[in-house]
Structure formats: C-alpha cells, structure tokens
Write a structure and sequence with these properties.
By secondary structure, this protein is an all-alpha fold. The protein has a domain at about 95-295: MetI-like (MetI-like fold, Orthogonal Bundle), CATH 1.10.3720. The protein is about 70% helix and about 0% strand. The chain has helices at about 40-45, 45-70, 80-90, 95-125, 130-140, 150-155, 160-185, 190-195, 200-215, 215-240, 250-260, 260-295. Helix 6 (about 150-155) crosses helix 7. The radius of gyration is 30 Å and the shape is flat. The chain starts with about 40 loop residues before the first helix and ends in a 6-residue tail after the last helix.
Length: about 300
C-alpha cells in the first residue's frame, strides 16, 4: 500500500510596494508638536493666577452680597470694612505680635510632633512591636480631638504655652506617624532588595531607600498634621484665652467677638486663612515641586 505524497500549499507571490515620494510638502498637515503659547495661555497656565482668580471671585461675591442685600454689619460686615479693620489691627494694633505668638507656638508643637513621629516610625521599621504600637495607638488617639485634651493639659501643665504645645503634639503626631509608616510599608520589595544589595542597613536604608520612595505619603502626612495643628491652635487659644497677659491670633478673634466688633473677627479669620494659604502654596508647594514632581512620582 502506497501513501500519497503530501500536497504542498502554494505560497502567495511576494508583492513589492512601489516607491512613493511625497513632493507637495507644502500641503502636508502636521499638528503642533511645540508652539509658543500666547500671553493669555501663559497667564492661564499659571497655578497662582488661577487660585488668585478664585479668591477674588469669592471676595467679589461677598462684597456684592453685603452691598445689594444691605446686610446688618453686626451680622456680616462688608469686605472693605473687614479689610480696613485688618489694616488697623496690623499697623496700629497688636495683631502682628499676636500672630508671631501663635506661629511660634505652632512651630514648637509641630516640630516636637514631627520628631516624636520620626522616632516611632524608626522603631516600627526595625521592630514588629513598634509597628503594632503605631497601628494600635493611631487607632486609639487619632480619632480623639486634640481640643478634648485641653482640660487635662491645663491640669498637668497649667495655663500657658506648655499646654498649647501638648495639644499640638497630639494633633501632629498620629497623622504624620501613620502616613509615614503606611508609606514605608508600601515600598516595593524590588527597591528594598536594591538597597540591601548595596549594603544599606539601619538608618542608611531608611534615609536612602524608604524615605524617597515613601515621600508622597510622608508629605501628605505633614500637610494633614499642619492643618490639624493650625486649627487646633486657634481653637485652643479661643478656649484658653490669654496666656500670661498675652494671646495669639485666636485670642484676637475671641476679643473681637466679646466686644461685638464683627469686623475684627473677620480680620482675624482673614489672617488664619492667609497664613494657611501661604504655608500650603509657598512652603509645601515648593517642597512638592522639588521632590515628588521632579522625581516623576506625581503629575
């Protein structure tokens, strides 16, 4: 019995495309790969301009509302009146010294909270007990409002700067520690192995591998800690009142309320908002641009 030889499939003929040369280059349509922006586009692309436009829009809405509806000044003063009160308090009053008092206490509490958080995170990095301690302590104390600790702070440290620093440390500590620790845990094993292959151990491993890789989380924790500390300080000064014959920005707002000078209350609130904008858009924004944005970790 003979087997039939397998049939071979005929391959398609190779088709050679004819050469084509474009000669009418002047008719070619090419999109703008890079072009010079117009002055309006350059202004609109400025982050500070857009935020300033939003702020001015809110101010215009405020002024329009108070003028058109003729709102009672004691309830809601006009923006121009509040701005004049701010000018008088800054250059003919004691508002500058009160702002400096609040900022000084804020730096003390924020710095102490950051330092304690760094120690706790280092402990959590090298020890499982430390990691469990941060997780458990954050679950207990992070939801606890710092303002609720004011009665205990006055008993332990008396009425003064030490009590304010204590509640500020509580505001900063757990937010920064939890964000930093979570960022460290999310660092990829590849980066960890690279660090170990280079012989990094201990503090060197944390500083050169974990901190850069987790810096977006660290920066977010620093922002949250700053916001918690700033509003806690103003609230604490409103409750504490004056300390040793002096007071901060919160005390200025409290006095304005007691004297039924609503424009002074709004002037104090202006400064709270302006300092918050300054810290967020000058300090933290520049840190963000020089680190996570430059490293390509954010868009």
């Amino acid at each position: 019995m003979t087997m039939a030889a397998p049939t071979r499939r005929k391959l398609p003929e190779l088709v050679i495309r004819p050469e084509f040369e474009a000669t009418d280059l002047q008719d070619a349509q090419i999109g703008d790969v890079a072009r010079r922006l117009s002055p309006i586009e350059r202004i609109w692309n400025n982050n500070g301009f857009r935020k300033a436009l939003i702020l001015l829009s809110l101010v215009a809405a405020w002024q329009t509302y108070t003028v058109v509806d003729d709102v009672e000044p004691l309830m809601f003063p006009r923006f121009t009146v509040a701005l004049e009160a701010l000018y008088q308090a800054l250059f003919h009053g004691e508002l500058i010294s009160q702002i400096w008092y609040s900022v000084k206490v804020l730096f003390m509490g924020y710095g102490a909270g950051m330092a304690i958080a760094a120690v706790l995170v280092l402990w959590a990095t090298v020890s499982r007990i430390g990691s469990d301690f941060i997780a458990m302590s954050s679950a207990m104390f992070n939801p606890l409002p710092a303002i609720a600790l004011l009665p205990l702070a006055t008993l332990w440290f008396e009425l003064g700067t030490a009590s304010l620093v204590f509640v500020l440390v509580h505001s900063v500590l757990w937010a920064v520690a939890l964000s930093t620790h979570t960022g460290f845990l999310n660092v990829s094993q590849t980066l960890r192995m690279i660090g170990r292959n280079y012989g990094l151990r201990g503090i060197g491993f944390v500083v050169k591998i974990l901190v850069p890789a987790a810096f977006p989380s660290i920066l977010a924790g620093m922002k949250i800690g700053w916001a918690f500390a700033w509003r806690t300080l103003i609230g604490a000064e409103l409750v504490f009142g004056a300390s040793s014959g002096s007071g901060g920005l919160g005390w200025f707002i409290f006095i304005g309320n007691q004297e039924f000078e609503t424009e002074k209350v709004f002037a104090g609130l202006f400064m709270v908002i302006l300092i918050g904008i300054l810290v967020e858009n000058v300090i933290f924004r520049n840190v963000e641009l020089r680190t996570v944005n430059r490293w390509g970790m954010q868009r």
